[in-house]
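Budget justification, computational time. The allocation requested in the original proposal was used primarily to generate structure tokens for proteins on the priority list. As evidence of use, we reproduce two of the resulting records. The first is shown immediately below.
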Amino acid sequence: MEKWFFKEKVMSVPSKQKAPLFTPDLILPDGADGTVSVNPYTHEAGPVRKGTVAATLNNIAVLNGFFSSPDPQNEPPIIEMTEAIQALLPSLRVIGVFDLFNVEEWLRTDTQQGRLYVTALYLQRYPQEINEKVAKRLMALRGENLSTHVQKAIEVALAKKV
């Protein structure tokens, strides 16, 4: 028997039977703003709101643009964005965003400082995710030409390493 996790239930499927097909309305029915999700990789459960991944991707895009060519007149509200991203991190973890693409993959970029920033915030919240490879990559990033916001987030994450 295989176990498939979604919503508040665990669905057992005989191993010779096809796995269930997940559709958006199965995960979050029309009219619902949130649900309890179970990470399909770690089985960690928690509440998630609709739009979590889309909000994160859009914030990363805004930050990518700003960090790559900062324009003081078009500076996004960094403090508010940071707080919003930090509030989304538990949901991103429960959804499995950092399992489908692990932290090392998230850090494997030279052109997306917004992605690096979000990953550093994630590592600040979940320092147990900082293994030897991740720490080595973070230390290598300190020598890169990155925004001061990204550099500071990386330093804070490294300081929290377990």
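The second record produced under the same allocation is shown here.
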Amino acid sequence: MKIEKNLKKVERILRRGGVGIFPTDTLYGLIGSAFSKKAVRRIYQLRKRNFKKPLIILISKRKDLGLFGVHPDKQTRTVLDALWPGKVSVILPCNVKRFFYLHRATNTLAFRLPRKKALLKLMNKIGPIVAPSANPQGKAPAVTAQKAFGYFGDRVDFYLNGGTLKSKPSTLVAVRNGRVTVKRKGALKFPKRSNVSTFQYKRFPA
């Protein structure tokens, strides 16, 4: 399916707790609504993912963090403003009990605010999504919709074709007490250990 022409159809599927393959700002993702326990459970099962590992959540605007009971302090907001929108996922504290199915007892969640217009348009309609890379755990991420189909076949509800995606996964960082630590190297490079002053007057490119 082509992206723009099928966003409404994808929206309807996701609202029903469906899941599918969507070209994100980095790689193809296996996406579902972050507020659907059914979709989240299905994604874990399809990817054969370790149930103890949380999923990264994509949001369309920073204030969406509040939907998860996440309210960053001033230092953290400075870091987020420097990194977002962009290919960086940020680990933030979340100890809200009703989101256990997302944080998996880690009491943290990783969030990313992407730049991709079609993705933002979709989330503005249905809200935040989970979007791990479209591959079973331990396999190489799918760089085409065809490769994703080879992994999942008809076990997902839709495939959107966005051509070949060659980006690295998002860089994963943790922010705590004004310190920024890289947990996973990825698409955006910056010092492994930084503090909030590194981000105060700098805008990192997407």
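A brief technical remark on that second record: The mean pLDDT is 91.
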